[in-house]
């Protein structure tokens, strides 16, 4: 890792200033960033902001047949009650569980904010490695919580309450699962010694990919259609996991499921399965 980082830092020598204006703008609000409220506000507002377009799409596509061809489940639309339940569940967990943890972390000492921005290549490298590590960690966690009945019934079953996912169901999780994901999310940037801007970028990308996995829409520009060679599973891949339960355990990439024989090819918009209701 050290040798690779040295190479990337050498490439960054000419591009480090590219991110400097952005980092200076963020760092100017250091008082807010150091607040114990910031992590909750940042993750919560980012999550809801990414979910909102799909909530609007669910409302619009119900009335616009041309949009239904992009829905994996063209006859399933979450009710207002389902949307509100998931939203309240997310707010409750952020306030009751995530916020106390951020207060404890804030109490241990403020994070250092370097004056220099990370290099562009360093940021891209670290975000990619963080995503690969997160994918591997959650794959192991996910397999265990499906193969061990007590773990599934006690901690993971709540996330499978719906077999036809929608955006706001992404964080419809037990406290233990949310805590585990939060731990992996914080662990990897810490292990790699990521710059704070890199950590923020990784968190944003991670939230987006998780929402996209559950959004129920398979667009021509969806991530799995942009990544070549079938390396990335995407929404159809994860939607099939919610249908079959015993396949496609990795959240994003496909290599772990391929290696362990748990990969199942997904369906796409225009070739949907039989729709299933909220159970």
Automatic annotation (TrEMBL):
InterPro entries documented for this protein: Fatty_acid_hydroxylase, Sterol_Desaturase_Related
GO molecular function: cholesterol 25-hydroxylase activity; iron ion binding
Main location: membrane
Domain Fatty acid hydroxylase: 128-262
Stored PANTHER family: STEROL DESATURASE (PTHR11863)
BP GO terms, sorted: B cell chemotaxis; cholesterol metabolic process; lipid biosynthetic process; negative regulation of cholesterol metabolic process; negative regulation of fusion of virus membrane with host plasma membrane; response to type I interferon
Residue stretches spanning the membrane: 37-62, 83-103, 123-144
Superkingdom as given in the UniProt entry: Eukaryota
Protein name: Cholesterol 25-hydroxylase
GO cellular component, one term: membrane
Key word Transmembrane present: yes
Organism: Vombatus ursinus (Common wombat)
Protein localization: Membrane
């Amino acid at each position: 890792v050290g040798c690779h980082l040295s190479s990337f830092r050498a490439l960054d020598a000419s591009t480090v200033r590219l991110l400097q204006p952005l980092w200076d703008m963020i760092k100017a609000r250091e008082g807010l960033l150091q607040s114990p409220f910031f992590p909750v506000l940042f993750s919560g507002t980012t999550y809801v902001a990414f979910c909102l377009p799909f909530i609007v799409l669910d409302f619009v596509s119900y009335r616009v047949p041309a949009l239904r061809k992009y829905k994996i489940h063209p006859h399933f639309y979450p009710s207002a009650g389902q949307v509100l339940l998931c939203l309240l569940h997310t707010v409750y967990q952020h306030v009751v569980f995530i916020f106390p943890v951020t207060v404890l972390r804030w109490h241990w000492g403020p994070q250092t904010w370097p004056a220099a921005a990370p290099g562009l290549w360093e940021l891209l490298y670290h975000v990619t490695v963080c995503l690969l590590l997160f994918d591997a960690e959650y794959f192991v966690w996910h397999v265990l919580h499906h193969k061990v009945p007590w773990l599934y019934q006690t901690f993971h079953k709540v996330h499978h309450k719906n077999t036809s996912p929608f955006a706001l169901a992404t964080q419809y999780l037990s406290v233990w699962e949310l805590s585990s994901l939060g731990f992996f999310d914080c662990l990897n940037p810490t292990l790699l010694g990521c710059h704070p801007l890199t950590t923020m970028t990784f968190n944003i990308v991670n939230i987006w990919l998780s929402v996209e996995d559950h959004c129920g829409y398979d667009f021509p520009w969806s991530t799995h259609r942009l990544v070549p060679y079938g390396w990335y599973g995407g929404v159809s891949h994860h939607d099939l996991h919610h249908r079959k339960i015993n396949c496609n355990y990795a959240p994003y990439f496909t290599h772990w499921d391929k290696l362990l024989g748990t990969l199942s090819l997904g369906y796409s918009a225009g070739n949907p399965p039989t729709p299933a209701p909220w159970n």
